């Protein structure tokens, strides 16, 4: 005789499996978006931003040319650079791939979690923002790399990453809804949110420094890199100072939380340690840009490390907030009273 299967347990098991799949899709979306941010950094430092002078096609073609002889009017063969063209084209292909992954994630969420607002609306928001980001990419090209639009383009990419991280953590919480560990309440949420906001402001400030350096390199090509840095002025000094402040604050908060054992969540603990490591790496790379010069590879990693820090800080904010909310729920308090009794 077969044992009876509890329909409620079966439903919960299926929901947990669906949530696991969604978490994996969201994680893939996060990784793909960070790959796109890295590719965008390569485009910026290589000067390939206008490698394709039109959008969505490239030199009027869906597959760009490899030689100037393939160009058709009105494009100027003299201005054609195959390397820069294909760097930008590959960046666009990665962008399309990221958009498809996020669209698939949304479709899966709509099918399996239509009545779970935190999952559905975060997936919808990510998809809508990606669509807007694609349109903004067109504006970047049309405005010939307008500095404000380029900064907005990067900032929006980080907002998309943050939304996807939120979706990933919410899917993880849904997956482990019936096996969550008990946590101790911490004041970590406000600290993490403050570090995330500080890092976003620091990244925007960094883009202003980079834009001024690019302007100097175009208008004063005979200057040395040291002379370019000297001409950046107060905004460069402010960027360096706030970068050191962010690192110091990260380590103070991290040390305080870890030493006082206020970070008991495994995810929060990993996030805090990662932020401490990333903030230190960011300062080292930033100082190398001043002491060694301004090598292109270091510029890419400088921006990318800052982007990673922002994502991890947001994950810490979401995770610590969820932890505090769970601890204030009636179910948690009842469980604690039972254990203590």
UniProtKB/TrEMBL annotation:
It comes from the Bacteria. The keyword Disulfide bond applies. One of its GO terms (cellular component) is membrane. It is found in: Membrane. It is a multi-pass membrane protein. Its main location: membrane. GO terms for biological process: heme A biosynthetic process. Coiled coil: none annotated. The chain crosses the membrane at residues 21-43, 89-111, 118-136, 148-169, 190-208, 228-253, 273-294. GO terms for molecular function: metal ion binding; oxidoreductase activity. Pathway: Porphyrin-containing compound metabolism. Keywords: Cell membrane, Disulfide bond, Heme biosynthesis, Iron, Membrane, Metal-binding, Oxidoreductase, Transmembrane, Transmembrane helix. PANTHER family: HEME A SYNTHASE. This is Heme A synthase. It comes from Candidatus Thermochlorobacter aerophilus. The lineage of its organism: Bacteria, Pseudomonadati, Chlorobiota, Chlorobiia, Chlorobiales.
